[in-house]
From TrEMBL:
One of its GO terms (cellular component) is cytosolic large ribosomal subunit. This is Large ribosomal subunit protein uL30. NCBIfam families: rpmD_bact. InterPro entries: Ribo_uL30_ferredoxin-like_sf (IPR036919), Ribosomal_uL30_bac-type (IPR005996), Ribosomal_uL30_CS (IPR018038), Ribosomal_uL30_ferredoxin-like (IPR016082). Coiled coil: none annotated. Belongs to the universal ribosomal protein uL30 family. GO terms for biological process: translation. The keyword Ribosomal protein applies. Part of the 50S ribosomal subunit. Pfam families: Ribosomal_L30. Gene3D superfamilies: Ribosomal protein L30, ferredoxin-like fold domain. GO terms for molecular function: structural constituent of ribosome. CDD domains: Ribosomal_L30.
Amino acid sequence: MAQIQVKLVRSVIDRPERQKRTVKSLGLGKMNSTVQHELNPAILGMVKSVQHLVQVTEL
């Protein structure tokens, strides 16, 4: 299965609580932190909801 790398490039300060929880559930904490995830519909939905805060690259 394909993998994606997700990097937090914008701060979650002054963002709605829902977006903060989504970023945390993706495994991202601080700015410029990166995680790798398997490509599945659940992860894609979370990435789409915070696409303005993250950078996604396909591995």
